[in-house]
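User: Second chain of the day. Same drill as before.
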Amino acid sequence: MQTSKRKLWITFGVFVAFYLFAMVFPFFWVFITSFKTSGEIFGTGAFRVIPKDPTLKNYITILFEKNILNSIKNSFIVATTTTIYVVIVATFSAYAISRFHFKGKNILLGLILAVSMFPQMIMTGPVYNLFLKLDWLNSYAIVLPYSTITLPMAVWILVTHFNQIPLALEESAKIDGATTFQTLYKVIFPLAAPGVFTVAIITFIAAWNEFLLSITLNTNSEYHTVPVAISFLRTQFEILWGEVSAATAIVTIPTLIIVLFFQKQIVSGLTSGGVKE
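Assistant: Same format as last time:
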């Protein structure tokens, strides 16, 4: 019995190790490729783990010639702005859905979820025509249509968290003279902080990585975000894989730091509303 149980754990451990290797290997390979020359990337040393002649040329080109820092700035502006307004709108919307009793509440939640299932390609055309008429192309107004990607998810997560907060706390606050807004801001919001924190991080990462709307609405290179800027690292006949790898390594650092520093809050936010008490 002990032998079979041990074999089962060994098999499980091997499977987990293989899975982790499969997940980490692409990032590792991109990182080492960023230090290779073009000749080594396409030559006989293409599969060499340690570059024969490591170089920082790709990083220097990306930082000082291809203006990747401007794209990082644009991504920060777009992602941060999207996160702030999505969290605010989602908080009020989720609180209203959670606390108010009205007909069609489940239908409304279903419609919100259905919006997130619409393919981006279908929405891009109408959004482009709207931005063209409003003269909003090539601007930071792109944060507005980003809500179609992030807002439904944010509302669903926050509704779950608000449902776990006892209604008696709000009633006590109202007896003490607190208004509805004060109750939400001083009582409910702090208790729902793990969910709000999780929504903020997921929204930031989703806005940071968005590509289709950004490349469609902002054709001017001055407003290119990171994914769009990386897609233009090519010539007429080839993709500059060394520069692409260097840019990918650079722009992954901010989101990687966020996830590593706040992983406990993310897990707490995703799980705290999962059990009904």
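The mean pLDDT is 85.

User: Great, on to the next one.
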